[in-house]
Amino acid sequence: MKPNSSGSREAGAGTLLPPEIYALPALEAAPRLLGQHLVRRTEDGEIRCRIVETESYGGAEDKGSHAYGGRRTLRTEAMFSSGGAVYVYLIYGMYHCVNVVTAAEDEPHAVLIRAVEPLTARDAELMARYRGIAVRKPADLSGGPGKLCRALRIDKSLNLSRFDLKEGAMWIEQGEPAESLSIVQAPRINIPYAEDYADRPWRFYLQGNPYVSVIDPQARPFAPD
Questions:
Q1: What is the rounded CA–CA span in Å between residue 110 and residue 28?
Q2: What is d(CA 4, CA 23) in angstroms, rounded to the nearest whole number?
Q3: Residue 9 lies in a domain
Q4: Is 24 within 8 Å of 31 (Cβ atoms)?
Q5: Whose CA, among 26, 28, 173, 223, lies 20 to 30 Å from 185?
């Protein structure tokens, strides 16, 4: 999908995501975050993106989670916040990843945002400028957690901020309802250490969206319980 060519919009005009989504366990929140709008405030203005790919990390019992077994460290502390908190961490010493903390305080649930789609051409231009690359295909821009964090200038300075408040540098607004979207689910990416949890279909993405990081030929239609 091409970004809308219009760059006009009223700053702060969107409606915040309903708080009940942040109160859900990560496995329920992850597909519901698809189609919602991630907003990043920068010195060059606001950038708005549609969330198109997520992964669920579901609490202390999930062997793929940083908080598996209730592990509470300086790095994972944000996961124990109440739903709506921002959890940012660094991988390979160079790539940031951004997560939406969900569920109740002291229940370490988080949804990794894996890919976003700029809403307008202006958003895409700013993101490409921040990436500092030539974008040959949409996924080059923001198809992957490290790529989108660079495109949106997300780093650990945003850790423990809030997605449910507009006073900060980043928040989530209502976009399209999940039930109106074509969603598929597949195993999460690069977590062989998760053992029997590695193959659970806890990655969700919009079918056919060119910004998705990895297309799984075995992905199946999302079927909510």
A1: 11
A2: 32
A3: no
A4: no
A5: 173
- SS3 label, residue 142: helix
Rounded Cα–Cα distance for residues 9 and 132 (Å): 25
Domain assignment present for residue 96? The answer is yes
Tokens of 220: 């199946």
> What does the alpha-carbon distance between residue 20 and residue 138 come to, in Å, rounded to a whole number?
32
| Encoded amino acid at 114, one letter | R
Number of structural domains, the chain? 1
Domain containing 165 equals 19-215
Strands (E), the chain: 37-42, 45-58, 86-91, 95-102, 109-118, 170-173, 183-186, 203-206, 220-221
The 10s digit of each residue's pLDDT in 154-186 is: 999 999 999 999 989 999 999 998 889 999 999
Query: Which residues pair with residue 206 across a beta bridge?
Result: 183
Residue 4 resides in a domain: no
Q: Which amino acid is at 24?
A: L
Closest CA to 118 of 209, 205, 32: 209
In a domain, 156, yes or no: yes
Tens digit of each residue's pLDDT (9 = 90 or more) over 26-70: 999 999 999 999 999 999 999 999 999 999 998 899 999 999 999
Looking at residue 103, its amino acid is: A
SS3 9: coil
CATH classification at residue 77: 3.10.300.10
